[in-house]
């Protein structure tokens, strides 16, 4: 996906009705010794980092349970859409654990430190509407009979992104992801570097031409 220039947006969805991702299999985990657990969680953390580092926009379609590592997967995505009936939570403390695949870092960056601490300390599960009210998800929708309401809304959101200039979108994502971790002056410098990479693109010239000619732009990702 990282190197396929034809891919403009990635949507993460589940093929299991009622479950986005229920997290680690604790029965499997119980058979591991301490060293194996450490390696397992490190690999999981690396996977989430790889997803977060994808250069293209990613959307998690949460149509059911997103618990523990399942919510960490959703947090690794750029955008999240949830059915109002979905259940989300970093429930690790209820099992004698703590989030180990990015949850302690990505949740506070998403909803703020105070709310993140409350959710992690209590292991509380929240529904899609509650998640929307605290900014954990971008959109919440009533579940439909097919059980894929969040996926359908995610597709609609993806279709809003698709017509936009691919390189500009990628550079925008990079500028946000890098800039949010540094002071504002450094962030401005990062934005400037990303902008500079976009200036010589054919898509930028096409965008300007389309505006002058009062027509929709035809971006090609070049």
Automatic annotation (TrEMBL):
Q: Which UniProt keywords apply?
A: Lyase
Q: Pfam families under this entry?
A: ECH_1
Positions the record marks as coiled coil are none
A single GO CC term, please?
mitochondrion
Kindly state a single biological-process term from the GO annotations of this entry.
Answer: fatty acid beta-oxidation
Q: In the UniProt record, does the keyword Lyase occur?
A: yes
Provide a Gene Ontology MF annotation, just one. enoyl-CoA hydratase activity
Matching CDD domains: crotonase-like (cd06558)
Q: Which InterPro entries match?
A: ClpP/crotonase-like_dom_sf (IPR029045), Enoyl-CoA_hyd/isom_CS (IPR018376), Enoyl-CoA_hydra/iso (IPR001753), Enoyl-CoA_hydra_C (IPR014748)
* PROSITE patterns tied to this protein: ENOYL_COA_HYDRATASE (PS00166)
Q: Any signal peptide, and if so, which residues? A: none
The UniProt entry's sequence similarity note says:
Belongs to the enoyl-CoA hydratase/isomerase family.
Q: What is this protein called?
A: ECHD2 protein
The organism named in the record is: Chauna torquata
């Amino acid at each position: 996906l990282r190197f396929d220039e034809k891919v403009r947006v990635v949507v993460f969805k589940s093929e299991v009705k009622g479950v986005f991702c229920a997290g680690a299999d604790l029965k499997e985990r119980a058979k591991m010794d301490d060293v194996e657990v450490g390696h397992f969680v490190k690999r999981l953390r690396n996977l989430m980092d790889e997803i977060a580092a994808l250069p293209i926009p990613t959307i998690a379609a949460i149509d059911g349970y997103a618990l523990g590592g399942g919510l960490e997967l959703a947090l690794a995505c750029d955008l999240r859409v949830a059915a109002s009936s979905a259940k989300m939570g970093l429930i690790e403390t209820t099992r004698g654990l703590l989030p180990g695949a990015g949850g302690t870092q990505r949740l506070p960056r998403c909803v703020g430190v105070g709310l993140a601490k409350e959710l992690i300390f209590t292991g509380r599960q929240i529904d899609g509407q509650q998640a929307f009210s605290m900014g954990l998800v971008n959109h919440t929708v009533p579940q439909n009979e097919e059980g894929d309401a969040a996926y359908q809304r995610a597709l609609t959101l993806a279709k809003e992104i698709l017509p936009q200039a691919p390189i500009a979108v990628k550079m925008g994502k990079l500028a946000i992801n890098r800039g949010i971790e540094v002071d504002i002056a450094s962030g401005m410098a990062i934005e400037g570097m990303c902008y500079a990479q976009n200036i010589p693109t054919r898509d930028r010239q096409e965008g300007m031409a389309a505006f002058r000619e009062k027509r929709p732009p035809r971006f090609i990702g070049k």
